[in-house]
UniProtKB/TrEMBL annotation:
<dbReference type="InterPro" id="IPR011045">
    <property type="entry name" value="N2O_reductase_N"/>
</dbReference>
<dbReference type="InterPro" id="IPR023644">
    <property type="entry name" value="NO_Rdtase"/>
</dbReference>
<dbReference type="Pfam" id="PF13473">
    <property type="entry name" value="Cupredoxin_1"/>
</dbReference>
<dbReference type="InterPro" id="IPR002429">
    <property type="entry name" value="CcO_II-like_C"/>
</dbReference>
<keyword id="KW-0574">Periplasm</keyword>
<keyword id="KW-0560">Oxidoreductase</keyword>
<dbReference type="GO" id="GO:0005507">
    <property type="term" value="F:copper ion binding"/>
</dbReference>
<dbReference type="GO" id="GO:0005509">
    <property type="term" value="F:calcium ion binding"/>
</dbReference>
<dbReference type="InterPro" id="IPR051403">
    <property type="entry name" value="NosZ/Cyto_c_oxidase_sub2"/>
</dbReference>
<protein>
    <submittedName>
        <fullName>Nitrous-oxide reductase</fullName>
        <ecNumber>1.7.2.4</ecNumber>
    </submittedName>
</protein>
<dbReference type="GO" id="GO:0042597">
    <property type="term" value="C:periplasmic space"/>
</dbReference>
<dbReference type="GO" id="GO:0016020">
    <property type="term" value="C:membrane"/>
</dbReference>
<dbReference type="GO" id="GO:0004129">
    <property type="term" value="F:cytochrome-c oxidase activity"/>
</dbReference>
<dbReference type="Pfam" id="PF18764">
    <property type="entry name" value="nos_propeller"/>
</dbReference>
<keyword id="KW-0732">Signal</keyword>
<dbReference type="Pfam" id="PF18793">
    <property type="entry name" value="nos_propeller_2"/>
</dbReference>
<feature type="domain" description="Cytochrome oxidase subunit II copper A binding">
    <location>
        <begin position="496"/>
        <end position="592"/>
    </location>
</feature>
Length: 592
């Protein structure tokens, strides 16, 4: 036994009897646990993986199981390779904010599974929500959320389809944000967003902070774990109580409060009171769970909500059918808890297979713990009886996600462990090392680690979506006239001191060879790639003018700036598009 295993054994202590059943020598029953994970040259992956990019501000698309990175979708960041943040179109969405922190990326749903239409992602840094269109895999809307800080848990409605999104505010603040307010007047906020219009429907304020988010499979409830109902502003205050809450929001009551006008307007948003004493009746249910919980995930059958202990080594299983009764006042909130299995130290998130098993990430133990939900319900609270298998990961796991696990079509094939620390798993690249996303085959009884994948800071969470759901919706070219200024014929229009240059890009030429303006003119370039050929992007860079973007097939982008430097400036194509790509250039002549 090596040192690490020794410590683990000591840590698990009394679990040794349970762990005995997990010894590697045991034969594997049931499904084989030997899924194909090598994707050979020319072959395609079985799943699209969508990763939040953490404080890089982006979203990444990976192929699973190869773990090849296929695309980086700029969202809250500036991306020079695509020109995101530089063009008029992207500036309009970003409004000058290029710092983001994407934590939770989720797809839009219909009937409890992904419909392949949109992704949604939060920005914890600047309190925004972005929507990505999956047909182009590009960001198409960004919504600023007032009255909140720490925009964290985000989840779309799963049933009957995604009309609403919920967003949890992890940090409590005064609403409105008045610095004179004492901390007892700081609130957590549950924001409801119209997913199609990307508008705020309303906000519910309460004393508790709201961390991770989930919605049920019936369109009735959304939820949040709260680790700071104490309204603490220091770490010791946040750890003061021996229990915190899993909080459930009743959507019928939210709609009722809106209909009855039971809200006040704060910064243009309808704010409903959800506080303990004066809150709208029947809207919020607080289920006590052990100290400083993390995560809330719903079993694919829709029956149970599971929140992890974080500071406590258990998971808490809440029966959503009992939640109905608790809202009706027939039982107490704590009576909704049907199991509390011991899983390990530092449990954070839970994911699922299609065979009734849950997989919980344990940060401190650096393990993934597979446990059976039914077994946990039949076992005494805090017992280890429900544990089926434990696997070491490398190291310090945060999020965890199995293929299709956030849908009713969970398929129990692949599991991703998103590990915060890689230590010695890759070549040393200096003090700031990559993270380690590990691919685990969960198709058999025992979990099997098959791949390490370095991940640049800081992929936070992911979803793994069956290829057939997404692939059919992804387009090869833009719908050209979706952009109202799409250029079919090149030309220059002068309106006083504003020069509007319309240009086509068609390999290997731009629609205009020379563009002449006067120093001090305001210049707008509108560029449309009207190449019919698939997969042929053109770049548009103006030398020494700090302008550089690409236009995908049939896409239009524009840029407006002041021609403040006289001289001859070559406009050139940055994206290798043709044998004469280097000759694809035009002169931008700024007369003194
Ligand atoms: S939280 S590591 Cu931002 Cu997703 Cu749990
Ligand atoms: Cu167009 Cu290179
Ligand atoms: Ca607490």
């Amino acid at each position: 036994m090596n040192r690490r295993d020794f410590f683990k054994f000591v840590g698990i202590g009394g679990a040794i009897a349970g762990v005995g059943a997990l010894m590697p020598s045991q034969t594997v029953a049931g499904r084989k646990g030997d899924l194909r994970y090598e994707v050979k040259p020319g072959e395609l992956d079985d799943y699209y993986g969508f990763w939040s990019g953490g404080h890089s501000g982006e979203v990444r698309v990976l192929g699973v199981p190869s773990m090849r990175i296929l695309k980086r979708i700029p969202v809250f960041n500036m991306d020079v390779a695509t020109g995101w943040g530089i063009t008029n179109e992207s500036k309009k969405l970003l409004r000058g904010k290029f710092v983001g922190d994407t934590h939770h990326v989720h797809g839009s749903y219909r009937n409890g599974t992904y419909d392949g239409k949109y992704l949604f992602v939060n920005d914890k840094a600047n309190n925004r929500v972005a929507r990505i269109r999956l047909d182009y895999m590009e960001t198409d809307a960004i919504l600023d959320i007032p009255n909140i800080q720490g925009a964290h848990g985000l989840f779309p409605q799963r049933y009957p389809k995604t009309e609403w999104l919920v967003l949890n505010a992890e940090f409590q603040i005064p609403v409105p944000n008045d610095p004179k307010k004492p901390k007892e007047k700081y609130y957590g906020v549950h924001t409801i967003i119209d997913a199609e219009r990307m508008e705020i429907v309303c906000q519910i304020i309460l004393e508790e902070n709201l961390d991770l988010a989930a919605t049920d499979y019936k369109g009735k409830y959304s939820m949040a774990n709260s680790y700071n109902p104490e309204q603490g502003v220091t770490i010791s205050e946040m750890l003061a109580w021996d229990h915190d809450y899993l909080i459930i929001f009743n959507w019928e009551k939210i709609r009722e409060a809106l209909r009855k006008g039971a809200y006040t307007m704060v910064n243009g948003v309808k704010v409903i009171d959800g506080t303990r004493k004066t809150g709208y009746p029947g809207l919020v249910l607080r289920i006590p769970v052990p100290k400083n919980p993390h995560g809330v995930n719903i079993t694919p059958d829709g029956r149970y909500a599971i929140s992890s202990g974080k500071v406590d080594p258990t998971c808490t299983v809440v029966d959503l059918e009992l939640v109905d009764k608790a809202f009706e006042g027939k039982i107490k909130p704590e009576e909704c808890i049907v199991a509390q299995p011991y899983v390990g130290l530092g449990p954070l998130h839970t994911t699922f297979d299609d065979r009734g098993n849950a997989y919980t990430s344990c940060f401190i133990d650096s393990t993934v713990v597979k446990w059976n939900v039914k077994k946990a319900i039949d076992s005494p609270k805090r017992s280890k009886d429900a544990i089926v298998d434990i696997i070491d990961i490398h190291y310090q796991i945060g999020h965890i996600m199995a293929s299709m696990a956030e849908t009713k079509e969970a398929d129990g094939k692949w599991l991703i462990a998103l590990n915060k620390v890689s230590k010695d798993r890759f070549l040393n690249v200096g003090p700031l090392k990559v993270e380690n996303d590990q691919l685990i085959d969960i198709s058999g009884k025992k979990m099997k680690l098959v791949k390490d994948e370095p991940a640049w800071l800081e992929p936070h969470d992911c979803i793994v979506v069956r290829r057939d759901i997404v692939e059919k919706n992804v387009k090869h070219r833009h719908d050209m006239f979706e952009h109202p200024q799409a250029v079919t014929e090149s030309g220059i229009v002068r309106k006083g001191r504003h020069v509007i240059v319309k240009m086509t890009a068609n390999a290997p030429v731009y629609g205009l060879q020379d563009i002449r303006v006067k120093k001090g003119d305001k210049v707008t370039f509108i560029v449309t790639n009207n190449d019919e050929i698939q997969d042929l992007a053109h770049g548009f860079c103006i030398s020494n003018y700090n302008i550089n973007f690409v236009v995908a097939p049939f896409q239009t982008k524009s840029v407006t700036f002041t021609a403040d430097k006289p001289g001859v400036f070559w406009i050139y194509c940055t994206n290798f598009c043709h044998a004469l790509h280097l000759e694809m250039r035009s002169r931008f002549i700024v007369e003194a």
